[in-house]
Design a protein that fits this description.
- By secondary structure, this protein is mainly α.
- It has helices at residues 6-26, 44-50, 53-72, 76-94, 100-115.
- Helix 3 (53-72) runs antiparallel to helix 4 (76-94), helix 3 (53-72) runs parallel beside helix 5 (100-115) and helix 4 runs antiparallel to helix 5.
- The longest helix is centred in the N-terminal third of the chain and has 21 residues, at 6-26.
- Mean pLDDT is 83; it is low at 8-29.
Length: 119
């Protein structure tokens, strides 16, 4: 029977733990990213979005819907109205602070309104 010195076992365990931690800390790098830059000065709502894959995906979904609707608006006044509604929604979203559930609700409600915008 081969005897493995304790120092080799603990070194092996430490290496395995370090490797596991490295992979775990790298996981967010593969997470969904929002449509805005997560660098620089961010408000608490933007930081929450940057730190959440779910909120980042909702941000991308909202942006796609918003720009799709904006492209469909044929009159300048309709485009202005939609842009104004978007600015108002951003204020509402930002009033959530870092509350993930509040931000999620704002995104879900606005996405629903955007999908019905042209109906």
């Amino acid at each position: 029977m081969t005897v493995i010195p304790r120092t080799s076992i603990s070194a092996g365990i430490s290496a395995a733990l370090a490797l596991g931690l490295a992979f775990a800390s790298a996981a967010p790098a593969y997470a969904a990213k929002p449509t805005f830059s997560c660098n620089g000065k961010l408000n608490s709502t933007e930081r929450a979005i940057c730190n959440s894959s779910e909120l980042s995906r909702l941000d991308r979904q909202m942006s796609s819907e918003y720009f799709g609707q904006l492209d469909q608006q044929t009159s300048a006044s309709a485009r202005r109205e939609l842009k104004s509604a978007q600015r108002s929604w951003l204020q509402d979203r930002n009033s959530c602070g870092g509350s993930v559930s509040c931000i999620r609700g704002e995104y879900q409600q606005w996405i629903e309104q955007l999908t019905e915008w042209g109906l």
